[in-house]
Amino acid sequence: MGSDFTLSKTTARAFRVGARLTGTTRKVFIWRAGLAWEHVAGSKAESRVNGLSLDVPALQGNTGIAELTVSVKPTVQSNWSFEVGIKGYAGDRESASGNLMVRKAF
User: Fold this and answer.
1) How far is CA 8 from its chain centroid?
2) Which residues of 28-50 are buried (b: 16+ CB within 10 A; e: fewer)?
3) What is the pLDDT of residue 71?
4) Is the pLDDT of residue 59 over 90?
5) What is the 3-state secondary structure (H, E, C) of 26-84?
6) Distance between CA 86 and CA 45 in Å, rounded?
7) Mean pLDDT, to the nearest integer, of 47-69?
8) What domain count does the chain have?
9) Are 102 and 75 in contact (CB under 8 A)?
């Protein structure tokens, strides 16, 4: 038995303010650090299953965001670089993410 699911458009109004600092040591070690604040002023979403409205979570509130990324090259002339980064969210959105990247330029 199938269900009829309808999702109307979702709208959110948000703005983000922040700063990011970047530094380097001997051109083989590069770092970036940032802090930001995000405010979602309001949102609207509508969903229905078999004609009945679903409760939709409110997407509004404040979130603090912090990030740190480090990039390293074996030598200044190397085509290879290695990058590790982490980003965290606190407040209405609470989560963390990370990345690891190996890059070779041609």
Assistant:
1) 25
2) eebeeeeebebebeeeeeeeeee
3) 96
4) no
5) CCCEEEEEEEEEEEEEEEECCEEECCEECCCCCCCEEEEEEEEEEEECCCCCCCEEEEE
6) 31
7) 81
8) 1
9) no
Q: Determine, yes or no, domain membership for 80.
A: yes
Say what the pTM is: 0.73
CA distance 95 to 63: 10
In which region does residue 41 sit, left (phi positive, over 0), alpha (psi from -120 to 50) or beta (all else)?
Answer: alpha
Q: Read off the tokens for 100.
A: 């690891």
Range of the domain at 28: 14-42+59-104
